[in-house]
Every structure is written in structure tokens, then in C-alpha cells.
Amino acid sequence: MIRATYRLQFHKGFTFSDAAEWAEYFAALGVSHIYSSPILTARAGSRHGYDVVDHAHINPELGGEEGFRAFASTLKQHGIGIILDIVPNHVAVGGAHNPWWLDLLEKGRASRYADYFDIDWDAPGLENKVFAPFLGEAPQAALAKGDLKLVREAGKWTFAYFDHRFPLRPEDQDNREGDPEALLARQNFVLADWREADARLNWRRFFDITDLAAIRPNEPEVFQATHAKIFALYGEGLIQGVRVDHVDGIADPSAYCRTLRARLDDIRPGAYIVVEKILADGEILPTDWQVDGTTGYDFMNEISALEHQPDDGVLESIWQRESARGLSFEQEEQRARHEMLLTKFAGQREAAVCAFARILPDENALDAALIAIVARLRYYRPYATGAPGSLVGDSYLNDAFARAAADSPALKNTVDTIAALFARQDGDLLVMDAVRRFSQLCAPVAAKAVEDTAFYRYGRLLSRNDVGFDPRRQAMAVAEFHRRMAARASSHPSAMLATATHDHKRGEDARARIAALSHTPQAWGEFVASALAAAGIDPADAYQLFQTLLGA
Fold first, then answer.
1. In terms of domains, do 342 and 446 share one?
2. Same domain for 472 and 493
3. How far is Cα 549 from Cα 420, in angstroms, rounded to an integer?
4. 34 inside domain
5. pLDDT tens-digit profile of 308-361?
6. 467 and 297 in contact (C-beta within 8 Å)?
7. How far apart (Å, rounded) are the C-alpha atoms in residues 20 and 228?
8. What DSSP element (H or E) covers 285?
9. Using an 8 Å Cβ cutoff, are 17 and 71 in contact?
């Protein structure tokens, strides 16, 4: 039975054998399962394991398969199992160690892995090519300096750029004489400066990280290739369940989770499955996903809110007055979402617009309408797919449609037309593609705009700025907290409950100290007014710095 987990972050400086030495200590703590970071072969030197390059083997830097088996055996002797973090959404690319990626660059659309990656093969100007923005300058300049050059490795000719490799297409392996620029232009990839990625990338990535390329685990062949080792470990009893990383990046999370449940239960019923999922305030994890729950960000948020006093406007007015920002969190989030859509995710946004334009006219209005809708979303993403029986009646999405139309009346007809597409369930392939692209755009925009941008611009109370939190809600009444606990116990009784995670921005103790300010807002206001006068730095930065010092 899953009782209490203890997260371990493996890397070459902390291996399976290192962790095994602590088994007795974990048992004494009452730990029932180790909550392991990803263990499949990652990029050399990886400190986290989320940059997988080989799904067939356990990372040799961690101790390899032999080391993992010994670790699992030691834990078992102390009555401890393993919940394994898995990464179905993306793989590491660039460099020279991912065979799927190298084959894709070499053979382009003819590669057996072409459909493993989420690539727009019809992107304007990049038809049937893979955009590869891994250079530090234009390719012509890199060629002239000799940083980009042809080399022969393992019997093949490839362009080399420091640690990166870009294999020549098969027809050029014996025909590479002449102008290197002309040779480069014939390849199945287009090299470019890394700064061009945001605008021109024709494949989906993890957030804005270009060396993590998204794959398509909803496809049966991809699912099997990326999960075979996981199933083998589970079948042997070496692991008891999985933690699914970034489930919102997957095209159809619901279908993926049901497939995962079915495959694991076919091997042995009772697998523990939790998903890394940030729920909006009031959002419920669908029970038809057939998972045990989330990884606990929602519980962490509720515990934090319970520690706070409700805001009667005092803290908000102090922040607005002293910081000189003048924006509510709602406004900061909306502004940040606009920025992300126009910068980090410009290429992905344009791909979504093109998908809708195959169904609807007036591409300019579509672009403006999609920006308005995503800017007004208040959760990570919708889960409609356009397929028969898919989710409809999404209150968060409908609210975004309504607010986008109210913000820009001239776009109302376009917004209403887009809304009608989301209500369709007839399986039209063009509609399904457009809805998918929209949904997979929403999740990374939410993460970058909220967690990585608005949380650092809006500093009323930093104890309410953390992963899975909503600063709009400062506090939660005891009765509401108990209602939510009862609801979770009913729908997902085995969900993971966390008060800290490996992703949090501040630990429980720091958050608790900062939360105390909600109980003494007047005293805080008096202190910060005098302290800011002497700080000599940007008042918004200083305001947050003082909270951080208090938390520490």
C-alpha cells in the first residue's frame, strides 16, 4: 500500500548505490515507496533525467540496470517499493546521442521516426524539412569560421558544430563535393541561429526549451517504444507505479492515461498512477482518466491557503502603493500571456492559426481571436478533442470565450465560430487538428506566463505564488478546506498529497513565515514603507526581496 513517498533525484553524483545506503533510514521514517526521478538514459551529465535520449536502457551514469536491480532489492528488504517518474511528452534533441533525432535529420520525412515527433511538415518555407536552430550564428558565418564543418564518423558524413551532429541525407553520402552552402541547402534539415527558434520552429518543444522536442505518445508505436522498459520493470515487480511528467503536453491526456492504466493492469492489476497536473481553482481531475490522482500541487495550494487570513484589501493596497506596479494579478497574468504568445510561442501560435484557417476564413481575425482567448484562460488547457464523445461543456473554456468576446467586440463573431468548433464531436480531422494544436499551445503558455513571469511581477504575498497556486485566492476557510478534502477522498482517495515538491519555489517553512504577514498586514505596511525608502532599488523588487528575507 502507498503510504508515504520520499523523492530522490538521481544523477551521476548520486547513484542507485548511494541511495541504497539510506534504505534503513527511509524505513525508519515510515517511507513506503521511493519516489524516483527518471532513470532511463538521459543526456550525458544530466542532473535531472528529464532529457531522455534512449528509452530502452537504464542510465549507466546512475548505475545501469544492474545497479537499479540491486537498489530495488535493498529497498525491498526494508519493505520499500518504487514509484518511477516517466517522461512521455518529450525527448532530448540536439547534440549527438539521440538516435531517433539523428535518423530524423538524416532522412527527413522518410525516417521511421518522422511520426514520432510532433512536426509540421507543411510549415511555409520549411516544407518537408526539420528546422534546427542549434547554432550560435548564421550557418554561413559558422561555415566561414570553420565552427560548422564536415566530418566522417561511424562510417557516415555529417556536419559537426561543437557537440552537435547533423547527418547528411543518404543520397549525399557519396556526393558531397563542391560548395558546402549548396550541400547544406540540400539536406533534410535547415540550420539556423538558436535565436530564431521562437518564431520559426516547425516542431513542438517542451515549453520554450529547444533541446527538448515533443513526441506523440498517443500513437501506439511511439507509446510502445517509450514505455517498453517501464512495463518490463513493472512486470518484474521492481516498480509499483509511475508518476507521469507534464501530462498536459500530450495531445489527448485522457486517452493516454487510460491506455497506460490498461497496459499496466494487463501485466498486474493495481498499478499506482499519478499525473503531474496543475488544477485551476475549483477544477477537478476527471475520473475517467483512470489515474489515482495528481502529484499533489492542489493539496499544497489548499494547505497554504488554510494558513492565510483573508485579504480585506489591506495587503493589496500596500503592494499597489509601495511597488508602483499598479496591476492586479489578473492583469499581470493577462499581460504575460500576451507576451508569451507573441514571443516564446509565436511559431506554435502561428501553426495553430494555420490549422484553424483551413476551416475558417480571415486568418488575421483568427490570430487576434486566438490570442484573446488564450490570454483569458484561467486553467492550463481544455481537453476537448473533436472526436465523438469528447469533453464538451467546459466552463473554463466557455468563460474564456465570453471574456475574449467582451474584451474585443469586433472579434465576437470569430470567437463564437471558434467556440462552435470546440463543441463539435463529429471526428472531422481538420477540426481535431486545430483543437489539438490550440490545447497543446495553452499548457506551455500558462506555465511560462503564470509560474515564470506573473509570479515574479506580482508580489503582494509571495507565499501564494507557487506551483499550482492562484494568488487571486489568498485564504481558505476551514469548512471549505474540509469540503475539498472530502471531495478528493471520494473521487481520488489515493491521490498524492504534497506540502513540498521538487518543483516548488519556496519550501513549507518559508511559505509559512511569509503567510504570517496576512495576519499582521498593518505592521507589515508600516515596516515596508520605511524599508523601501532606504532600499535604493526598484520598489517592486525590494518589496519581494524583503518577503524572501523574512521567509528565510
1. yes
2. yes
3. 50
4. yes
5. 999 889 999 999 999 999 899 999 999 999 999 999 999 999 999 999 999 998
6. yes
7. 25
8. none
9. yes
